[in-house]
Each structure stands twice: as structure tokens, then as C-alpha cells.
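Researcher: Here's the sequence for the chain we discussed earlier.
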Amino acid sequence: MNRHSFETYKTVSKLPYAIVLDNVRSANNIGSVFRTSDAFLVDKVILCGISCTPPNTDIHKTALGSEDAVEWHYQADCFEAVKQLKEQGYLVYAIEQVEGSISLENFSIDATQKYAFVFGNEVKGVAQNVVDICTGSIEIPQFGTKHSLNISVSMGVVIWDIFKKMQYGF
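Model: Thanks. This is the structure I predict for it:
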């Protein structure tokens, strides 16, 4: 299936994007984020606030070991994490439904840039002070009766779209 071993995965060149989780409550959602990050060569995951960290049995249930492959670190304050990423040259986008957000299908990638994508709490979303400091916001278009997706689903949709645009130019 053309999979990397754990040892070779650590040495494989990753795509220049990071995932930031702002107070994500569910360890299962966090595990799913690790698993998707592994699948699409995310450079790192930053866990903030109440987001739990590995080692954790519930993270491992959905991550299936990817929490040991994907680089991650914990930072208590998401605002500070975003501020530091911007200082490191990242363009940081909140994944949130806010005024002035860019619809995901209209979001363009510059392959020479580093990106970070902030995903928020399952109920409250990305904190407003974090949204305010971000480069911008991206919204996933939705057409049903609900106007939100589970954070792990949102992350999968966004990262697949970004991966596609970076790898294939569309």
C-alpha cells in the first residue's frame, strides 16, 4: 500500500502546514486529528488549552499510533501559539464561520508559504481573540440544515483540500 514505516515517516519531508487545536474537548477528536495529520504529512500539531495530550488512551483509540509519528507540542494559550506561529512566518487561518471568511473552495495556496490552520472547541469554536489575530478565516461551505461539522471532520475536509492544492495545484 506504499506506506512508510514509522522510522522512515520521521525522515520524510512534510508539507509546510501546522494544525492548532484551540480547547478541543474530545480526546477522540484529537486522535482523529493526529491520524489525518499523519495521512497528509502535516508538519506539526499544536494542542492548546484544555486539549489533552499524548499519551492518552482515548487519543490512541482513534490515532492508532499516529500520535507517536506526528510532531506535536502543547501550549497553554492558543493566542500565544498563533502569535508565535506568525512570528515564525506562518500565515494562520482560523477555520470558522465569521464575517469576511474565505470559502474553502476559493482559498488559494502559495506553495512558498508556511500555513497554520486553527480548529476550535466543539461547542464554542475558535476563540474570538484568536480569530482576531489570525491572518484570516476559512469557512467550509455547507448546504444542509446544520451549519457546523465535527472538528475531526472539518479538519479532514480542510487538510484534504489544502493537500490537493499543494500537491496537485488545484
